[in-house]
Structures are given as C-alpha cells and as structure tokens.
Design goal:
Elements lengths: L2 H5 L2 H20 L9 E3 L1 H9 L12 E3 L14 H34 L2
Antiparallel strand pairs: 1-2
Helix pairs in contact: 2-3, 2-4
Length: 116
C-alpha cells in the first residue's frame, strides 16, 4: 500500500503547508526591504499540483503568486506585516493539525502491525 493511500491528502497538505511557511517567513523577514514584493501560495492549486505529482520535490510552481497590497508603500514594498503575521499563525495551526492527524494515523498503523 502506497503512502499516498495510507495518508490520503494529508501528506501532500503537510508538504504544501511547510512550503507556505517558508514563503510567509520570507515576507515577514523582508518587511523593511525596499521594493520587496510579498508572495503567497494558492493552497488549493499547490495541493492539486503536489497530489498530481507535478511538483514533487520541485517547489510550488504556478501556485506561488504575488500578493496585492491593500495599502501601497512609498518604497515599493508590498509586505503588510499584520496580514503576514496572521497568515503565518493560521498556517502554523493548520500545519500542526495536519501533523497531529498524520501522527495518529502512523500510531494506528504501528499498533495494527504489532497486533495490539
């Protein structure tokens, strides 16, 4: 039985959430960099791409989009720190939830293999 069937969509979701965490962290780190353009991942598109095997090990491809700011900055930076911090926190909670589900699934499989 392949890992994809054992873990369903959750393995791919964990991969995309991890990549999104990196993109959001980069936005936050560059909040004061003139001309920096904030980006984010279209989660649905990235998940579909990873599930189809298109982006396995290659990143998020076409799902990475530039963020449109609600208020433009004079220096050309499009990072809105509050929005980025909120997105990062939400993604972290979703990442942890997915990881907890996978840990539970692995524990169940391990107990089944041991005959418990």
């Amino acid at each position: 039985m392949a890992a994809e069937t054992l873990f369903g969509v959750h393995g791919a979701a964990l991969e995309v959430r991890a990549q999104r965490m990196g993109v959001l962290a980069s936005n936050i780190a560059n909040a004061s960099t003139p001309g920096f353009k904030a980006r984010d991942i279209d989660f649905k598109a990235a998940l579909a791409s990873v599930e189809d095997g298109q982006d396995r090990g290659q990143g998020i491809g076409d799902a990475l989009k530039y963020r449109v700011p609600t208020q433009t900055s004079l220096d050309g930076n499009t990072v809105e720190l509050n929005q980025e911090q909120t997105a990062f926190a939400e993604n972290a909670v979703q990442y942890q939830t997915t990881l907890s589900f996978l840990n539970g699934r692995i524990s169940t499989i391990t107990r089944a293999l041991k005959g418990e």
